[in-house]
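Bit of a strange request maybe. I'm writing a small parser for C-alpha cell strings and I need a real example to test against, not something I typed by hand. Could someone generate the C-alpha cells for this chain?
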Amino acid sequence: MIIGVPKEIKDQEFRVSVTPDGVRTLVQAGHVVWVEPNAGAGTGFSDDEYRKAGAHVAADKAQVFQESEMIVKVKEPLLSECSLFKSSHVLFTYLHLAAVPEMTRALMDAGVTGIAYETTEDAGGHLPMLKPMSVIAGRMAVQIGARYLERLQGGSGVLLGGVPGVAPANVVVLGAGIVGCAATQIAVGMGARVTVINLDIERLRHLDELYHGRIVTLASNQAWIDQAVAEADLVIGAVLVRGAKAPRLVSRSVIARMRPGSVVVDVSVDQGGCVETTRVTTHSDPVYLVDGVLHYGVANMPGIVPRTATFALTNATLPFIVRIASAGVQQAITTDSGLAKGVNLMNGRVTCKAVAEAHGLPYHPLT
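Reply from user aminoacidic:
Good idea to test on real output. This should exercise your parser:
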C-alpha cells in the first residue's frame, strides 16, 4: 500500500504521525511511503532521515495526497485539507468527529474511509492509541494549571503544593480514566490537595488504595460536583465517552462561584468539553476569562512536547498501520473487530453511532 505522511498544520502542532524508524518498518514490509517536506521538523526529524529510511519526500502536501492510498495523520484534518481527499483514501488519525460537524460533513462529502485512533480497540477492549496521548495530556494538565495559577499569568497566586503553615491548592479532577489518573498522579506528586470525582466506584476504590488516603474520592452526582468545583483552585476536565460528545458536568453558574483567578483545564475539549464555559483555544492563544476564572481549552496539548509524544504515538499506531497496509482496509476490519470499531466513516456514511447521534445523521453500521 502507498502511505502518505503529511505535515500537521493545526496551530503549534509539532508532532508527526510516523517516525523515520516507523517508515523503515513499513518499507521493509513492502509498502511505499510519501512524506511531506518538513513533516518531521517539529519533532527533530529531517527530510534526509526519512529518505534514508526509504521514504519518498514529496514536492508538497498535494503530492502526498495525490500519490497515497492511506493518509496517516496525528490530528483531525482542517477544512483547508479536506479538498485534498479522494473517495479512495483511507484516513487514519485522531478524528473526534462528534465535536466538529463541519469537518464530519466535509469528509463524508469526500467519501473517505475514516478510521479514528480514539475509538479503535485492542483485543482487551482498551483504547491503545488514545492511552499514550491521554497520559501526556493528563500530566501536562497539572503543570499547565500550576503555571496559570501564578499571578503573572492572571491566576490567583496559589502555589499548587503550598508550604509548611499554608494550605496547598485544591485540585478537582473530573473523571478517573487515563487522563484523570495521570493528572491525579502529578497533582499528588506536587503536593496538592486532590479530589477525584467519577461514576465508576471501582475506579475510585482503586485510586483510594493506590494513594492510601492521600486523595478524596467522590461518587459522581451533581450536588457534589458543584460543591467541589466551586471550592477548587484548579479544575481538570478528564471525562471521556467513547466517540461521543463529553457530558456537561459544570455549569456557568458554578464557574461564577469559583474564586477569581482559579483555573479550568478542560482536557475533554476535543470532545466538546465537560464544562459549559469551555471553548477550543490554541497554543498561540490558550486562555480566556469567564467570570474571573481562567479557562485553558487547547485541543492538542501533547503537540508542544512532540519528541515524547511522537515516539509514544508511533509505538501505538504502527502495528495498526502495518495491519491495514498489509491486508487492505476491508480485510483488516473484517478480521479485527477492534479495528472495525475505529471506522467512523465509510463511503460517505457515518458508521459510528455516537458520531451519528451527535450530529443527527443517519447511522450505518458496518456489515
